[in-house]
Amino acid sequence: MSQSYNRGLIEDFGRWKEFSAGMWAWIFHKFTGWMLIGYLFTHIAVLSTAIGAADGQMMMLAGEEVNVYTGTIQGLESLFIIRVLEVGLLAVAVFHILNGVRLLMVDLGIGLDSQDKSFYASLILTGVITVASVPTFLQGVGF
Amino acid sequence: MAERYSSFTPGGTGWLLQRITAAFLIIVLAFHFFQLHFVNHAAEVTFAGTQARMENVGYFLAMVLFLITAAFHGINGIYNALVNQGLSGTPKKVVFAVLALSGVALVAQGIYVAIVMAGVSV
Which of B43, B66, B73, B119 is deepest in the core (most CB within 10 A)? Predict the structure, then answer.
């Protein structure tokens, strides 16, 4: 028996109160995806200081002269806000990976009946891994 | 209910490549995070340490392949998300060109940086 109905524009974010688990998974996957590709551009930009370092460019870091690559990375890593952002990046990456595995399973037709449960599992596991990583990520800036 | 909810053209190479790069990225992204935050700490990264890692051919190739697949997966993902939101016509073509160009520039810059890190003077 087939049933047809007008579902409206599925991409209408104004209808967020009507969203089901699958829709939230879809939105979180988009959001984390945007974060990750945005970060990749920033990451390559920061790592590009290796070009200057290979060329012998130096800078001062905490009263010591270091090459510009080491100085830029260690300078950023000494900032508390950067460490907090890194925890955020980990959370985003872990969710994208776990939900990505879930999506590959859905594509293969495995466990379709529990796709909502696997979304909740992705969320919980992301939370657990993120919280467990906090001490490592904040080492040297308060921990 | 025969409607499709996917952002991708059915049976398209974009769809398949997005899945193949995803499978690869799951492993490499997890490895990358583990390697540079838990085995080595990001705060202790030095140019000499990076050079030592990148001089290993296997690691170098893994990182370059990581960059290419991540850039493709991300750019293709953004493009499809925008198409899904209703992007069409000339704006769709413009967005495609801008995204493709950004992706190529990102990969080119990344490979240049990787070569420099491996100690090869360009």
Answer: B73
